[in-house]
Write a structure and sequence with these properties.
By secondary structure, this protein is α+β, with helices and mostly antiparallel strands. Helix content is about 25%, strand content about 25%. The protein has one helix and two strands. It is flat.
Length: about 45
């Protein structure tokens, strides 16, 4: 299997998409290692 790396655009795209819907992304610790990315998008009133 070849080593491959992305361009680092995934999280930036998610931030733009979530922000366009009035939401936000946050990061939480995940012990003993790693991170949890939390995406929050408000519900529509319609």
């Amino acid at each position: 299997m070849e080593d491959s790396f992305g361009k680092g655009l995934g999280l930036a795209f998610c931030k733009i998409a979530v922000g366009a819907h009035g939401g936000r992304i946050s990061v939480e610790e995940n012990q003993p290692k790693g991170s949890i990315f939390v995406v929050r998008i408000p519900l529509s009133d319609t």
